[in-house]
Amino acid sequence: SEVIRDSVLAVSGTLDRYPGGPAVPLKSNADSSVEIDTKKQRRPTDHLRRSLYLLCRRNYQLTELIVFDQPTVAHNCIRRDSSAVVLQSLAMLNGRFVMEQSRHFATRVRSEAGPDPARRITRAFELALGRLPTPEELQLTTRFLARQPENSIDHLCHMLLNTNEFLYVP
């Protein structure tokens, strides 16, 4: 769970690598979800720090991490369980955090690759998957970008963050 969140932040270019310091505060919402309390953070970018720095209490864990099997602190955790459940896909496809970071990722790609669609595609694949797109992926993605409106690179970046290749280590 923490690795996925940290990887999304790193790929989007928003990860705050500030070491040490107090925990990043969380708040509970009326719908029982838990999110970062940006009003109580000490630094403006604390909400973008590594998951290691998030406050963790027995019944008070960041909702987006619980979905990906973050262990509860009420029990000893000698081994992490892993699962693949529908809520994980829904969190990655529809969650506010991933959607926001996808937009940052797209902004980073536009900035680093310029206006050329092939360079944008290549840079997005390099950042998200650590490799170049295959010729078939490049062809399909180029056609996709050509059919979409201006924000198509946002959709591509969001899609790459949702691939098995990004989420799971083989």
Mean pLDDT: 86
List the secondary-structure elements in sequence, H or E: HEEHHHHHHH
- Terminal Cα span: 16 Å
Radius of gyration: 17 Å
What is the beta-strand fraction? under 5%
| Order of the strands making up the biggest sheet | 1-2
Broad shape: globular
- Helix share, percent: 40-55%
- Number of helix segments? 8
Helical/strand content category: mainly alpha
The residue ranges in which pLDDT falls below 50 over 5 or more consecutive positions are: none
Largest sheet: 2 strands, antiparallel
Number of strands: 2
Describe this structure as you would to a colleague.
The protein is mainly alpha-helical. It is built from eight helices and two strands. Strands 1-2 form a two-stranded antiparallel ribbon. A hairpin with a 5-residue loop joins strand 1 (about 25-30) and strand 2. The longest helix is centred in the middle third of the chain and has 18 residues, at about 95-115. It is globular and about 50 Å long. The model has no long low-confidence stretch (mean pLDDT about 85).
